[in-house]
Design goal:
single chain; 51 residues; mainly alpha
C-alpha cells in the first residue's frame, strides 16, 4: 500500500489531478499505519501479515 500511495502521489503531481494526490496521501498513511502495527507484532483483523 505504501508503494501504491507513492505512485498515486507521483502521478497526481505530474498530471495535476488533485483527486489522485488526495487518494495517494490516504493510501500512503494507511500503509504506514498497517506497517507500524505489523512491525510492533500486533495482529490486524486476525492476521499477523498483510501480504
Amino acid at each position: 500500500m505504501i508503494v501504491l500511495g507513492i505512485v498515486l502521489l507521483i502521478i497526481g503531481f505530474i498530471a495535476k489531478i488533485a483527486i489522485l494526490w488526495t487518494i495517494g496521501i490516504i493510501v500512503l498513511v494507511i500503509g504506514v499505519v498497517l506497517f507500524a502495527l505489523g512491525a510492533a507484532g500486533r495482529e490486524i483483523g486476525g492476521r499477523r501479515h498483510w501480504f
